[in-house]
Amino acid sequence: MTYINTTVEEHKGTDYDLVCCSEVVEHVENQANFIRDCLKLVKPTGHMFVSTIAKTPESYIMTIVLGE
């Protein structure tokens, strides 16, 4: 298994079994384009995993105030 830590733009045209975007989407300027570009990298039988912090007061306290 190979892990690549780089930008989406550097890998256009390459198909991956898994594209993982953990805690990234909230830092991207154009989120719709970013997700679209990531989906283009996933093989037809592959998977895409996206996670982000929920926008609730509770998650803010737990992740920003207490976590940082």
Q: Could you characterize the architecture of this molecule?
A:
The chain is α+β, with helices and mostly antiparallel strands. The chain has one domain (11-65). Helix content is 28%, strand content 25%. The protein has helices at 31-40, 57-65; strands at residues 16-22, 42-51. The protein has a two-stranded parallel ribbon with strand order 1-2. Strand 1, helix 1 (31-40) and strand 2 form a beta-alpha-beta unit. The protein is elongated, with a radius of gyration of 14 Å. The mean pLDDT is 83.
Alpha-carbon distance between the two ends: 32 Å
Q: Which strand order spans the largest sheet, edge to edge or round the barrel?
A: 1-2
How many domain modules? 1
Indicate the structural class. alpha+beta
What is the gyration radius calculated from CA atoms? 14 Å
- Low-pLDDT windows of residues: none
Q: Can you summarize the main beta sheet? A: 2 strands, parallel
Number of strands: 2
Oligomerization: single chain
Percent of residues in beta strands: 25-35%
| Shape designation | elongated
Share in helix: 25-40%
